[in-house]
Amino acid sequence: MTEYPEKSWSFSKDKLLTKCPRAYYYARFLMWGGWDKNAPERVRKAYRLTKLTTIEQFLGSMIHDYIANNITALKTQDIHTALNYIGKEFNKAVKSSYKMKKEWEQNPKNYIMFYSIYYKNRNLFEGNLGKDIKEKTKLLLQNYYNSRTLKDIQSGIRIIEIDRENNFTSFFVNNYKIYSIVDFMYEKNGNTYIVDWKTGKRSKDDEFQLKLYALYAYKNYNIDLNNVYLINEYLYEGDFEERKYTKEELLEVENYIKERIEIMEYYLKDKEKNIPKEEKTFPARPSKYNCKWCNFKEICPEYNENFISQI
Question: Where does the PD-(D/E)XK endonuclease-like domain lie (predicted)?
């Protein structure tokens, strides 16, 4: 293990840096090495807190995994089997969160801990949560079965890449590893299609994410960017949106990444070794919006000072 994390950039980490530099410090630097049982307790805790997940994130991950396996294995669309499997996995995750906290604290990578259970802001057994999750899962699966992308697959395509088993795909800009995890990429009739399965609502970030995937494809597969179609499959809405850009528009993403890397490097005291400045250099931006779903409020002095009296 290296003493400091690798020089890398991702869209999600960049958003966190913009939202709250202190949270970025915890997620990027303080947690480093926290998987080692001999690490300081605050480092261990920061690492554990990076592993918290929301119910929505967990369900999205399950749907993505199901789709990847379904496409790869060319299985028939059996919604009852899929619902049963995802339901069992969700129940296991709930049990892990409620009953196996000590095990999770020792080995957070191999257990599930829901944010709402850890911070005790939601009782999963109240109301109709289980029923609502099952209905949402059924809707997402049905809309996948009816998606335009699946119809394309069934009519015959050449798969270029599919996200399975947490393959952290990347490319390089200015000696930084740029993480860009493509859900699905395929070729048909001489054109390349890059698909992002969305299990939540539309976001203003959707467009940039697709452009980032196109840049990844260009860097790794040398594809013709003039023949690339970028697709959001909105499974919750049962809709899709196809986008097409010029080569120049897509390559502009690389310039944006370079600009963001410069901002990120402001917080480093050694750019070559990726050594951060002191924690206090990363300002916290406490607010009800920023702190409501922050994983790190348990260890953040700014949260304790500004919000603990309101709980």
Answer: 8-301
Instruction: State how beta strands 228-234 and 239-243 pair.
Output: antiparallel
Q: Is residue 152 domain-resident?
A: no
Is 120 part of a structural domain of the chain?
Answer: yes
Tell me: do 164 and 135 sit in the same domain. no
Q: What is the CATH number of the domain that holds 182?
A: 3.40.1350
Residue 187 CB neighbour total at 10 angstroms: 15
pLDDT of 183 over the 90 cut: yes
> Strands 184-188 and 158-162, how do they pair?
antiparallel
Contact 89, 64 (CB under 8 A): no
Q: How far apart are CA 24 and CA 10, in angstroms?
A: 12
| Cβ atoms < 10 Å from Cβ of 27 | 22
pTM of the complete model: 0.93
* pLDDT, tens digit, 9 for 90 and up, residues 254-303: 999 999 999 999 999 999 999 999 999 999 999 988 999 999 999 999 98
Does residue 295 sit in the same domain as residue 214?
no
Task: Write down the pLDDT at residue 166.
Answer: 65
In the three-class reduction of DSSP (H, G, I as helix; E, B as strand; rest coil), residue 102 is classed as helix
Alpha-carbon distances of 166 from 61, 162, 181, rounded to whole Å: 10, 10, 9
d(CA 113, CA 295): 11
Pair 115, 51: CB distance under 8 Å: no
Largest CA distance in the chain: 61
Residue 68 predicted with pLDDT over 80 = yes
Nearest to 178 by CA among 204, 214, 228, 207: 214
